[in-house]
TrEMBL record:
Residues 192-278 form the OCT domain. Keywords: Cytoplasm, GTP-binding, Hydrolase, Nucleotide-binding, Ribonucleoprotein, Ribosomal protein. One of its GO terms (molecular function) is GTPase activity. This is LSU ribosomal protein L14p. NCBIfam families: Obg_CgtA_exten, PRK12296.1. It comes from Platysternon megacephalum. Signal peptide: none annotated.
Length: 323
């Protein structure tokens, strides 16, 4: 979640600290549990840039789930280092800075898995006269534990710069010790274009009237057929040109289709049936132009059948409307 996790009792000054050392603007108030979710702040110390998380306040029993403790402790697991923010000016009965520190450490130990996290201790609110009087006693105890300790005031800014650079040193040291990430190979894989002839398939279905019946199936031919207005000869010529460029005619010829053979395009029981009339090529030039295909010069059986059906339909419609 963040490089540094700020932990401490509610109202210890964690939100004030993150607001003082970064541009984060957490909710700050003088009552407990004003922070219900972690606040993140980006901190710059020289050439090191790192993130700090203001983890919601822990209380005794957090490791047992008290005060949403399990949720808060899981946030700390994702931090590289821990900073204890100790309230030096608390007036709550039964609390003092060292006891607060012991309680928080006890909860971290009970949660488990955090022993390897480096610790820093920030003795906060020393701008309060009574709090400053306690610093010598607390400093000596914390230093005996082997933890770096900083006397700070988020209100006056005292001690914040040394604390920031101490955080940065820990973060940078752990980054340097981490194994370098494996470089990611950028693989650019252009979408494969189907080879000519693989966008359709042709099957020989058997003998049909006037020759073999050939079935052409494929997404493109079937889509083109559905889009074609067969009452428009120019549209039909355009369809023929597209099928030729796709390689349908070449494949039919390769399989042995003869002029006049019935060719069905489409799947299912209701395909569109054509009479095979290959385009005539001279060298690389087709002897016809789009929209005036020479195959329209002769009326093929399939064309005549379609026109007869169309004429019958229009006659029926006109008769019905007349009544």
């Amino acid at each position: 979640m963040a490089d540094i996790g700020l932990v401490g009792f509610p109202s210890a000054g964690k939100s004030s600290l993150i607001a003082a050392i970064s541009r984060a603007k957490p909710k700050i108030a003088d009552y407990p549990f004003t922070t219900l979710i972690p606040n993140l702040g980006v901190v710059v110390a020289g050439e090191t840039v790192f993130t700090v998380a203001d983890v919601p306040g822990l209380i005794e029993g957090a490791s047992l789930g008290k005060g949403l403790g399990h949720e808060f402790l899981r946030h700390i697991e994702r931090c590289q280092a821990i900073v204890h923010v100790v309230d030096m000016a608390t007036y709550e009965p039964g609390r003092d800075p060292l006891s607060d520190l012991d309680v928080i450490e006890g909860e971290l130990a009970a949660h488990g898995g955090l022993d390897d996290r480096p610790r820093l201790v920030a003795l906060n609110k020393v701008d309060v006269p009574d709090a400053r009087d306690l610093t010598d006693i607390v400093l000596d105890d914390v230093q005996q534990r082997g933890w770096p300790v900083f006397v700070i005031s988020t209100k006056s800014g005292e001690g914040l710069t040394p604390l920031i650079y101490a955080m940065a040193a820990i973060v940078q040291a752990r980054r340097d010790a981490a194994p370098p990430p494996e470089p990611k190979r950028i693989i650019i894989s252009p979408k494969a274009q189907p080879a000519k002839g693989t966008e359709f398939s042709i099957r020989q279905m058997g003998d049909g009237e006037g020759g073999f019946v050939w079935r052409v199936e494929g997404e493109k031919p079937q889509r083109w057929v559905k889009q074609t207005d067969f009452l428009n000869e120019e549209a039909v010529g355009f369809l023929a040109d597209r099928l030729h460029r796709l390689g349908v005619e070449d494949e039919l010829l390769r399989l042995g289709a003869k002029e006049g053979d019935a060719v069905a395009i489409g799947a299912g029981v209701d395909p569109v049936v054509f009479d095979f009339q290959p385009q005539i090529e001279t060298d690389t030039e087709i002897v016809s132009r789009r929209g005036s295909d020479q195959r329209f010069d002769s009326k093929r059986p399939s064309v005549l059948r379609r026109r007869e059906l169309d004429a019958e339909y229009h006659a029926f419609k006109a008769e019905k409307e007349g009544h």
